[in-house]
Amino acid sequence: MNERSTLRPMNATTRAPSARSRVPGPLGGRLRHLRHQAGLTQAQLAGERYTGAYVSALENGLVRASMAALNYLAERLEVTVEQLLTDQVPRWDRLEADLQLASGDWQAAVDRYTALIERTTARTDVAQLLRGRAEAYCRLRQPHEAIADATRAYEELRRVGRDADAAYAAYWLANAHYQLDNPTEARAIGHQVLAEVRAGLEVQADFKLRLLVALAATDSWEGNHERALTLLEEARALDEELDDRARATLLFSLAIGYAQTGDHEAALRAGAEALGLYEGADARLEAGSLRNSLALTYLQVGNLARASDMASGARDTVTRLGDRRLLAHVAETQAQIALAQEDEAAVIRYANEALDLARSTDNAHAESAALLTLARLHRRHGRAAESEATYRQAADLLRRVGPRPRLSEVLREWADLLVTGQRDHEAVALLQEALQR
C-alpha cells in the first residue's frame, strides 16, 4: 500500500478510529512500565480506590486521569507525579546523582544513577544516566561494568546527534579499556575523540586537557615516555583556559612525564608548582598522590631525606582520607626508600603492608611494585631462592595485568639472577620473553 492510498477524506463510510483502537499515550506507557517494574497487577495498583479495569483504561489511553488519580497512583508506585507525566529525568534527582559523583561518593552515585535508569523511559535520558554511571564505575575501578554503560551511552548519543555528550562517554570507555590493560583500544578511542575536538567539536573547557593527559598516561603505561611528554606539552598550551585545579593536574602529569624521561629537575619543579595549586584548592587526595610521586623522584636523584619527608607527608594525608588503595602505593614507596637506606626491617614492614593493602583493593600495580622491591631485597642479601620465587610471583601477576614495561624489567632482573647461578638456558628464555614484551 502506498502513502497516497492511506490518506482518504473522511465521509459517511469512513469512520474515525474508535476509542478501543486508540494508541496508548505517553502516560499509559509510563504507567504500564512503572507498574511492571514494581511487580504489580492492574488490580493491585488500583487498590481499594479504583479498579483494575480503570488502570487498564489509563494504560491503553481510553480515559483521562484526574489529578486525584495521578497522586494516588504515583504514591502506590513510589514515584512522583512528575515522573508519571514526563519522560525526562527529574532535574533534582539527576543533580543529586551528579553531585555525588563530583564529590567522590562514587558508590552512592552508582546507586542513584541505577535507580534513575530503572524508572526512566526516554532513551536519550537513559544514555546520559549511563554516561554518569560509567564514570562512577571507572572511579570505582569496575571497568567491565563501565564498558557496558559507556558503550550503550555512546551509541545512543551519537544516534541522536549529541556528539559532545557522546565524546564524554567515549572518554570513559577508553578509561575502562585502559584499566583492563587494553592500551591499543584505549588509544584508538582517545585519538578518535581528540581528532573530533581538534576539528571543532564544542566540549567543556577542560575536556581536551583531560583527553591529552589520558592519552599521555596510556603511552607511559606502554613505556612510550617521549610520546607521552609530547602530548602533555600540547596540553600545556591550554594553560590560560584552565582553573587552578586543572592547571595542577596538568603540572602533576608533566612532573611524571619529566621523571620518566630522566629530567628530574623539571619533574621536581613542575611537581612543586602543582602541589601549591592543589593545596590552595584544598584538593587533599590529589596533593597526597603528588607527594608520593615527588618522593619517588627525590629517591631517583638520591635525596633520601627529602624522599622520606615527602612519603611521610603523603602517608599522613592519605591515612586521614582513608584511601586504602592510594595508601598501598605510599607504603610501597616507603619500602623503596627503606631499601635505598639499607633498612631491611623497614623494607619488609612497608612492603608487606603494601601487599596487604593492594590485594584488599585489587591494586595490581602496587602489588607488583611491592613484590619487585622484596625480590631486590632478597637478592641483595644473598637469598637467591626467595628472590627467584618473588620475581616469579611478580612476573605471573604482570603477565596477567601489565604494564608490559614493568614485566620486561622483572624478567630482565630475574634473568640476571639466574645467570649468577649459572642457569644460562633459563635466563635466555626470560630475556627472549622480555624482548617480545
Secondary-structure map:
Layout: H1 3-6, H2 26-38, H3 42-46, H4 52-59, H5 67-77, H6 81-85, H7 91-102, H8 106-118, H9 123-139, H10 143-159, H11 163-179, H12 183-198, H13 207-221, H14 225-236, H15 244-260, H16 264-280, H17 284-300, H18 304-321, H19 324-340, H20 344-360, H21 364-380, H22 384-401, H23 404-420, H24 424-436
Helix pairs in contact: 7-8, 7-9, 8-9, 9-10, 9-11, 10-11, 11-12, 11-13, 12-13, 13-14, 13-15, 14-15, 15-16, 15-17, 16-17, 17-18, 17-19, 18-19, 19-20, 19-21, 20-21, 21-22, 22-23, 23-24
Provide a compact summary of the structure.
This protein is 76% helix and 0% strand.
General shape: elongated
CATH classification class of the largest domain: Mainly Alpha
Residues in helix, %: over 70%
CATH topology of the largest domain: Serine Threonine Protein Phosphatase 5, Tetratricopeptide repeat
H/E element sequence: HHHHHHHHHHHHHHHHHHHHHHHH
What is the helix tally? 24
Task: Report the sheet with the most strands, covering strand number, pairing sense and barrel closure.
Answer: none
Radius of gyration: 29 Å
Number of strands: 0
CATH architectural name of the largest domain: Alpha Horseshoe
Judged by helices, strands and strand pairing, the structural class is mainly alpha
Mean residue pLDDT: 87
Q: How far is the first residue's CA from the last residue's CA?
A: 63 Å
Unreliable residue runs = 1-25
Number of domains: 4
What percent of residues are in strands?
under 5%
Fourth-tier CATH superfamily name of the largest domain: Tetratricopeptide repeat domain
